[in-house]
Amino acid sequence: MPSHESSEELPLRQLLMRVAHVSRRAWLADLEPYGLSPHLARALNVIAAQEDSGMRAAELAQRLRVSPRSATEVVDGLAERGLVLRSPDPDDRRAKVLSLTDEGVRLWRTLDTSRRERDDAMFDVLSADQREELRALLLVVLRSTDSELE
């Protein structure tokens, strides 16, 4: 049964979840024209962070906190779309290194720009001081739960 209480009456956890929900819906809308799932987009972002050095699928699995098999499926999805290239690892010819293709880099830049603009717009209602205070408070909460900060 849906709640009809106003946002002002909600506990902090529910307010935080509503903000996250609004952000996630906008992110999904950004991904839709490219046929990307959130899993593929996260993997694209992780691989892009490696810049020119690339990474092995096992490292991608670890960073995404998924099984190696799941990471392979994600990489297959990105490779089928022409966004990721598997190249021989110069240190171990049996292994492959993942890197973004030129198309992958272009798409990642487009999505990253869109995300930054969307996030900026969402928090533009706050002053710079309020944004910094919110950031500091959220970091305190994360650290108190022993969550790994990414």
From TrEMBL:
Could you tell me which residue ranges the HTH marR-type domain spans? 9-143
Q: Which Pfam families match?
A: MarR_2
Keyword list (alphabetical) reads:
DNA-binding, Transcription, Transcription regulation
The question of whether Transcription regulation is a record keyword is answered with yes
**Gene Ontology biological process terms, A to Z:** response to stress
The molecular function terms of the Gene Ontology recorded here are: DNA binding; DNA-binding transcription factor activity
What's the name of the protein?
DNA-binding MarR family transcriptional regulator
Q: Which organism is it from?
A: Yimella lutea
